[in-house]
């Protein structure tokens, strides 16, 4: 690896850590929270564990969005619970693969999209954390859109996705089909021109029998913390009456 590439990776990791720690500071005593999945979310989980151990913070419990997240949370002493005990959460904090100016997301690069969406939808407040490389003007240009499907329907679902203009590839790990924590498969859908109308695409995808969930998270994000060279910027979702492009102040 070139020295310049190594420096860029270190800088990006520093951004992830900074935004993870900033998000952990949002958690208040007594809260029930959702714990997202992915590398940025794991920085938040570690920072929360530090607050619990070193600052004496006490929370009612946390719902993990993946088996990996559960393992990391247990390792740092976070008390875990589930949606049966707490069907409504105070706060969910999660990362993203892409975020557009409307705070719409593509998620699921790690394969946890179904549980991530369930937890986000059960939360009063959904905070997305990311670095500036995840901000895009149009979803789907740089990362595929994951579609979780039941194995029985794999081929019919793939054909329907291709009819919508997607190149649908079965996700694999080590040469074998990748199965989610829910026992399903993922088709990664590539759109050469991006996703011009995420809402219309989501509606069409939901009409495909066999699709369990999509990686489009629309009208769900309450706010976003974005880390970059200038620090951390806070973006808040605006109402329909406001400007469609969210803005916010930089957080030192």
UniProtKB/TrEMBL annotation:
Gene, per the UniProt record: rpiA
Pathway: Carbohydrate degradation; pentose phosphate pathway; D-ribose 5-phosphate from D-ribulose 5-phosphate (non-oxidative stage): step 1/1
Keywords per UniProt: Isomerase
E.C. number(s) listed in UniProt: 5.3.1.6
Any Pfam family the entry gives: Rib_5-P_isom_A
Name assigned to this protein: Ribose-5-phosphate isomerase A
Stored NCBIfam families: PRK00702.1, rpiA
Binding annotation for substrate: 37-40, 94-97, 107-110, 134
Lineage: Bacteria, Bacillati, Chloroflexota, Ktedonobacteria, Thermogemmatisporales
Family of this protein: Belongs to the ribose 5-phosphate isomerase family.
GO cellular component, one term: cytosol
CDD domains: RPI_A (cd01398)
Role description: Catalyzes the reversible conversion of ribose-5-phosphate to ribulose 5-phosphate.
